[in-house]
User: Fold this.
Amino acid sequence: MFTLPSLPFVPSELEPHMSARTLEFHYGKHHQAYVDNLNKLVVGTPMENDSLEHIILKTAGRDGKEAIYNNAAQAYNHDFFWKCLKPTDREMPVPVELKNAIIHSFGSWEKMIEEFKGAALSQFGSGWVWLVKEDSDVKVTKTANADTPVVHGQHPLFGIDVWEHSYYLDYQNRRGDYVTNILEHLANWEFALMNLKD
Ligand code: FE2
Assistant:
């Protein structure tokens, strides 16, 4: 039985870049629905005590398992996404170790940010944009709908939800402004560093 994990912040702490009202719907309705739907699909089956990651890996690309995969992957992606965000007023310089890894892979921090924004804007329809570790390299990638890097041999460091439900109330169609504001004001780079060291 899966439950909705607690948010690592108070919803109003992300304002004005992400409103408490957006979180009321995004976390309270959308994320909750993925968890509820997953429970309906796996409770009473051998998967009910598995971890989300294990369910995702077992069902990816399997005929007839699409609904389980989609709901488990969205539950996983959203849990990860909330951890990528920090309160607006909490100062967080980019940790030196993370910055050095980015410079090693991209040439500069700014180049990574540019690629990340480009990937966010070019994702057609719903999906996610990620900073991932693959082998010893760090790269930007994007996934459509519920898809998640963990099934592609990639270890996520940081990610942003670019489904319309994540920004429409605050930004309407301005996905670029939403992503820029997260990168500049809400990104939890300490969480990204922790994942890099994993
Ligand atoms: Fe979402």
Notes: The mean pLDDT is 97. The chain has eight helices and three strands.
